[in-house]
Structure formats: C-alpha cells, structure tokens
Specification:
single chain; 63 residues; mainly alpha; membrane; transmembrane
Amino acid sequence: MPKFSGLFLSWAGVVIGSILLILGITFAFGFAYSLILSGVFLLTGSLLFVDTDEEICRKENRK
C-alpha cells in the first residue's frame, strides 16, 4: 500500500470516530456506550497509525 492511502485511511478513521462519538453522546441510550467506545478505539488507533506513518516518512527522508 502506498503511504498516501495509509494516511487517507487514518483520516477516514478519525472522521468516523468523531461521528460515532457525537452520535453516542447525542443519543445517550444503552447502545451509546458501545458507540462511544468504538469511536474512542477508532480515534486512538487512527492517531497512532498517523504518528507511526509520519515517523516512517521521516526516516526515509533522512536516507
């Protein structure tokens, strides 16, 4: 996979995670906790993926 598609997938994860968080807080029903948790996991996973991808790019640029 090219680096750009990895970054694009990460930003898509950030957007989807944010939407899930907003939906979970808005509805505040029994299933809201699962929405909030899945949103948090998506956000943290995507942000970690973006960080590692940027580090890989920096290492390649140094060579």
